[in-house]
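Repro case for the chain-ordering regression, as requested:
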Amino acid sequence: MPETTAAAFSISGVTFTYRGSPIPAIRDLSLEIGPRQFTALIGPNGAGKSTLVRLLAGLSPPDCGTIQCLGVELGDWNRARLARRVAVVAQEPASVVALSVQEYVALGRNPYVGPWSALGASDHEVVEAALARTDLSDLRGRQLAELSGGERQRTRLARALAQEPEILVLDEPTAFLDFRHALWTFQTLEDLVTHHEMTVVCVTHDMNLASRHATRLVLVGDGRLLAVGDPGSVLSRATLAEAYGCEVAIEHRPGLGHCVLPVRALTKPAGGA
Amino acid sequence: MLGLIGLSAAVFAVGLGSLFLGAAAVAPSDVWAALRGGDPGGGAGTIVRSLRLPRVLCGGLTGAALALSGALFQALLRNPLAEPYLLGVSSGAALGAVIALTLLGGALGPAAPVLFAFVGGLVAIAIVFRVALSVGRLDTHVLILAGVVVASFFGAAVMLLLSLAEADALRSAVLWTMGSLERASWGAAGVLAVCVLVSGVLAFGLSRHLNAFALGEDAAAALGARVEPVKRVAYVLASLLAAVAVSTAGVIGFVGLVVPHAVRMVWGTDHRVLLPLAALAGAASLILADAVARTAFRPLELPVGVVTAILGVPLFLVLLRRRLA
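-- result from build under test --
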């Protein structure tokens, strides 16, 4: 099976500019994301993290360069087949969709069922398992609009898990979450990698949790790759000062990872959202 | 499942019931006899078999087409207040029919307005799509804007022709735009049936993707939908349904808007449920509205578009208030 040994994503020389924007959001970026790794994507606002997620999800083709997913060029993937291997949890607006938790999670089975057929018993089992995995079994009948921020985020993760993917790409899954929910999210993701052989690529601003749970950190700034490696090597004062324009203090606590404390802004904030 | 059985029964009951209603007084026993193929005399056989039966069928199928079209537009535009005529189909069809009725003066026979209306509707859709696709993909905002602009252009052309028209032609053209099932025939019912069945089955096949569209196009893509093809097929189906409906029955408002909305409120937003139930509910409500149109001021017939609007507007306002509340 060539797929199991191939890199989850292999990005080479990718540049991407949004229509109507004068500056590229991603510039000549090359990166290999190995299988069964927990990769955390960090970087300041406007660094191009969400753009990179869009590119990895195959939602926008790069202007130049190539992105391979599991050894196959992203553009050559059939969308439904890709959705069975790669699940994306994007930053969705708090939607006003009138769906129950169960209906929403069941959308994760879309790539598996034919156009005219109904969900089978096995599909329902997968949906149930995804609900149970994210502690949502009791909330299955609730409307999405009635959920708290933490519950809604869990619902998105459940929908992604219902796709039974081998690769999970998440864009700031802990935004707006309190630290208990954020911790739960990272623990769950780490468990998916270590016990369920999944590959996780997660955009986050929480360097402390990322350094503890992720196996690899990728730091981007201005659309470029600034550093890649294990948390200890990427989270250095010099690197972070350069990327964020901010003086930081870093403390390593055994078992707790690296604690990054922002100390003082060195420059005015640049870049957009 | 209960909804499916209930609404099917409702369509059947309403359809059967309205066979007994009409401008001409036909005894119920004679209607039965006519339906079983006999001719009880007094022209009852002809009235029931070549007037009322095709009219009920056309009414039901037009209602189903409008409701399906409305449901598709509402899913694609992620707006429950979208309706079948949004992209200018009705104005294009009206222009076609008015050309046939005024400029040609009905010279090409009674089928001409229907054909011209259908072509007019297709021309309007073609222009709108052509414009919306010029950005390389089907852009929803451009689509709506182009629809509004094309609709007002065709609307102006209709006004121009009407202001120059003779009194007789003016009357028939104005009546056409009000929407009526008077022109129902077995031929029209056949065309409608094929369109509704084929479009309905194809649209049902897209229903999973339409569900995902509610989360946004990117989310639908990440869930395995090929967004551009799905969108284009669904828009074409919705527009075709609207064009067929409007060219056989004129402009009938509010069925395409209110029916899917009401079905959604009762049975939820899953399109695998919504599409079939909306089609049935649309059929039942238009047959019912037409029965009212035929009998309320007997022997005078109201345009059915007037009935759907007069009954539909208050219902719509109630729904709107509930939505905003």
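Ordering looks correct now. Chain B touches chain A at residues 201, 204-206, 208-209, 211-212, 214-216, 218-219, 221-226, 264, 268-270, 272 (CB under 8 Å).
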